[in-house]
């Protein structure tokens, strides 16, 4: 009973944080709780587990891509400033 409550807390943490170990552990605890309560069958559990791991990796990939875009824009704006800023001073 205590372990089920702890797994429920990790499940909530996994829902709150969209990336990292909490997400994966939270999703696994959700699957385990469903398995313990007998709601789902093992085949559906495996499919759900694969879907959740795939969603987690896609979120992580999307997050990394968004961070890289922001850094690329910052670098581009610095390059534009250096290039055009220096040209304005020369004219």
UniProtKB/TrEMBL annotation:
Keyword Membrane on entry: yes
TM region(s), chain numbering: 6-33
Keywords assigned: Membrane, Transmembrane, Transmembrane helix
Domain of life: Bacteria
Name of the protein this chain belongs to: Uncharacterized protein
């Amino acid at each position: 009973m205590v372990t089920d409550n702890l797994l429920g807390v990790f499940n909530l943490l996994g829902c709150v944080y969209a990336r990292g170990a909490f997400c994966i552990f939270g999703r696994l605890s959700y699957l385990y709780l469903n398995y313990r309560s007998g709601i789902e069958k093992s085949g559906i559990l495996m499919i759900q587990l694969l879907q959740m791991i795939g969603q987690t990796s896609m979120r992580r990939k999307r997050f990394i891509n968004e961070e890289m875009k922001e850094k690329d824009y910052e670098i581009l704006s610095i390059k534009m400033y250096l290039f055009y800023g220096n040209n304005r001073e020369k004219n």
